Every structure is written in structure tokens, then in C-alpha cells.
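Next up, sample data.

:::
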Amino acid sequence: MRWLALVVVAAASTALVIGAGWPRRAVAAGSGDPRSATTAVSGMTTSQFDQAYHYQTSQGFMNDVQTIWKGGDGYYHFLYLRNARYRHDGDGTEWYHVKTRDFVHYTDVGVSIPKFNGVWQWMATGSVITNESGFFADLPRTALVAYFTSYIDGVQRQFVAYSRDEGRTFLPYRDTAVMSAPDAETNARDPYVTYDARSKTLVMYLVEGDRIGTYESADGVGFHHVGATMLDDGALADLGLEDGDLGLIECPNLKTLRDPRTGETKSILFFGANGYRYGQTTGTYYMVGDLDGHHVFVPEQRPSRVDDGSDYYGANVMQNGDTLLTSLAWMGNWGYSDKPISDDYGPVYKLGSLSLAHHLTLAGKPGDYSLVNTIIEPKALYQGAVAGISRAPGVATRCST
């Protein structure tokens, strides 16, 4: 999908050029020195580098996308990690809520899960499930339940919270962590949680260094280890990925897709990784395979990238029926996104954008499947700015490794 990735990157660059031509945020009258405190605060919301047709955080810094779901209000909802005072306080991220009807026009809802609430501190990635199964008997079936990582004294711990108002606000489900890494040096984070109706259990996929651990729970609080998907050098080399090294693993997600031509349904494991050994940056990878009897993912094919561009990381994926997935990602990577951009008055602290939405379908043949990737183009926002760059509508492009 390299040529399509180039389209996305080119479009993003054009948006930055457009933003640079817009009026800058005004400095309060009488503020005197343009480097005054007023200017410093306005730098967190400056519009100088705004994206023209990618959603961008209204203030501070954004990165990983959290769960995407379809609400009863007809909107698609998702959350992302945001630090509203990035590089001023430097105190970590919370979960921010956004909704959209078409993945083109977006509306801010607000902070859904605040940080430093007396139970958890700042939050990293996690996932949200609905209680439509009634698994949590003490919550209504309309409730949403979130699992996420918080760093407590440097130790990665998993917390659970719930929402009774369609994700606008979340409260602690319990006042202590439900799982914890043994020490500050051990990775145990970014829980992806799903409900299995056949076994009536919750299943958690947790990043643990070079593996994704699988855990089961009968009550949503106590989890026990049942296995792991190894993503170390040896396991990936066995799948044909040369030396196998994909660096730091993050943000696991597991979905299923049915190929309408073969009728076969496969499990798809998504995760964030680094392609630096293969001439690529950080990105979102997927592997095709199946689950064993304990919900452990067993890969059948080597990892491939969802998008060959450098800016499709911290992604999340929504199940849209048995033949279609919808994905959004953070349009950035840690090679540069934690560095400030500068305007005439100094650093600008409004950093991070959302990728265009991707529709993913499965194609190929047994043992050799790949994702076909169609981008939802924001044509209503183009305004002629990218003439000659956008591709024809409805053209699906196969991802390549």
C-alpha cells in the first residue's frame, strides 16, 4: 500500500501548509511582550499549524486512539490519550472523548476519564466494552466498562472504570488495580479486553515486552494467565520476518474477518511496533491466524503493516460486521512527536492529529491472506486544496509488507 500511504502523507503535508496561512491566535490586548504568559498559554491552542481535514486535538498533545464504538445516538464514538498542558506540566495523559457520524466531521465531547482522581494517576492505553451481555450484573446493560493502564510509582497497573452515560464520564469500578506488573522494569500494559459468549468470560490481551499475554476472568476483576502469543526474535523469524526484531510492542487489538470469496473467517491480531530494521518507522502491524481453546492467538502468517506510512500508530479497530473493520490511528510517532514545533514567539504546544479512517477487508487465499485498505476521504473538506493528489473514490488498495 505504499503509493496510498504516500497519498496520505502528501495530503497531511498540504493541510499543514493551509494551516500555516490561517490567522494566528490573537494575543490579549495590552499583553506587551509577545513572549508573555498569555502568549505561552495561547500556544497550547494556537491554530497556526492546524490540520485542514484531519481531526486535531483542541489543546495540548494527543496520541493513542482508544476503543471505537457505535452509540445509541447514531454517532460513532472514540477516545484518545490527551495531555492538555503538554510541556507545561508534563504530567501525563487522560482519556478524551470525540464523536462523529461520518469519520469526516468530528465533535469534541470532553474528558471522559480524568487523571489523578485518587484511584489512578495518569493513563496509558486500554479498551472499552459494552455490558450488553449482562456480564457485570451490578451495572445496567447499557453501561460501558473501560480497562486501562495507569503508572503508579512507575509500575504499570490495570484499572477498571464504568460509564452509565454512554461514555461521557467514567467512575472507578473498584478503588484498586485489578492487575499489576511486579516492578517498574516489567512491561504489563495496554489491555485489550473482549467478552466471549461461549465461555461467559472476559478475555484480556496484555502487552508484556516481546509477547502478548492472554488472561481470562469470570468476574471482570480477578484475571488468570492462560497463555501468550510470542513476538520475540525467534517466533517472528520462524514466520519469515528475517531477524524478527520489531522493537517495542504496544496497543494490541484482536478482531475477526470473513473473506466473502472463500467464506473463511480468520482472527486478526493488531499491534504497534517498530520497523526500523526494515527501513520503516513505527507503525501498526497485523497478523492473520486463529485462537486456540484458551483464546490465545496463534499466528499463521508473518506480520504486515496496516499502512506503510510513518504516521499510523497507536491505532484502534472497530468491528463493522463480519466482513469489515474500521480503523483510526494517531498520525504521529515518537521519533518527532514529543518535540515542540515553533512559531515566531517560541514553542507551540498543540501537537498530534488523527489519521483518516481506514476500512479494512480480508482478501487472498487460505495461508496467504492480507488486508485490503480503503481510506474514507474527507472530500467535503478538500476545498480544492489537494487537487491532483486524491485518488478515485471507492478504489481498494491492498496493503503490502
